[in-house]
Design a protein that fits this description.
Elements (H helix, E strand, L loop, with lengths): L16 E7 L2 H8 L5 E9 L8 H5 L6 E8 L6 H10 L8 E2 L2 E2 L5 E5 L2 H16 L7 E4 L3 E3 L7 H4 L4 H17 L6
Parallel strand pairs: 6-7
Antiparallel strand pairs: 1-3, 1-6, 2-3, 2-8, 4-5
């Protein structure tokens, strides 16, 4: 399925929009955005590489060129793309190339795959703003490629496995930042 597919825009009275971002492990970014008001669905997946229908094992090899990403379907009447970017940048480290914590490799790169010119402009403007604030963001901004949903067991992983070692160590600090800085945006 392409990221541009309009399956999220079936309700013409209140169409949803989509954002696609990668900020390291998709279990982390997915858990953050599942808690945000106006986000209607979050799908963990892969994008940005050359291999069609990649598997998690192939992604982990680093040889596919894909990043772990999430597709966020959101109601623009409840949350803006800019606010999604604010949350995205506050809950991962955009200054480390191909790395988030102990996760290393191009599959963990900080990336925004834009779906239209407006998203591109907003993403570039946000990165410029961060750089003016002294944050040396290395986040990639690229046109939306093919999006491949991850395997079923990755979907909503943290909610299903909160005691799993990686989840219990990596995700709570991100959720704490979300609660601290974006309390008004939570469900």
């Amino acid at each position: 399925m392409t990221i541009q597919d309009s399956e999220t825009k079936t309700n013409t009275q209140n169409p949803l929009e989509r954002a696609v971002v990668g900020g390291g492990c998709f279990w982390c970014t997915e858990s953050v955005f599942r808690a945000v008001r106006g986000v209607k669905a979050v799908t963990s997946g892969y994008a940005g590489g050359a291999r069609a229908n990649p598997t998690y094992e192939q992604i982990c090899s680093g040889a596919t060129g894909h990043a772990e990403v999430i597709a966020i379907d959101f109601d623009p009447n409840q949350i803006s793309f800019e606010r999604i970017l604010d949350i995205f940048f506050a809950t991962h480290d955009p200054t480390t190339l191909n790395r988030q914590g102990n996760d290393m490799g191009t599959q963990y790169r900080s990336v925004i795959f834009y779906l239209d010119d407006a998203q591109q402009q907003k993403a570039v403007a946000k990165i410029e703003q961060l750089k003016k604030e002294g944050i040396k963001a290395v986040t990639e901004v690229s046109p939306a490629p093919e999006f491949y949903p991850a395997e079923t067991y990755h979907q909503n992983y943290y909610a299903k496995n909160p005691e799993q070692g990686y989840c219990s160590f990596m995700i709570p600090p991100k959720l704490s930042k979300l609660k601290q800085y974006f309390a008004d945006d939570l469900i």
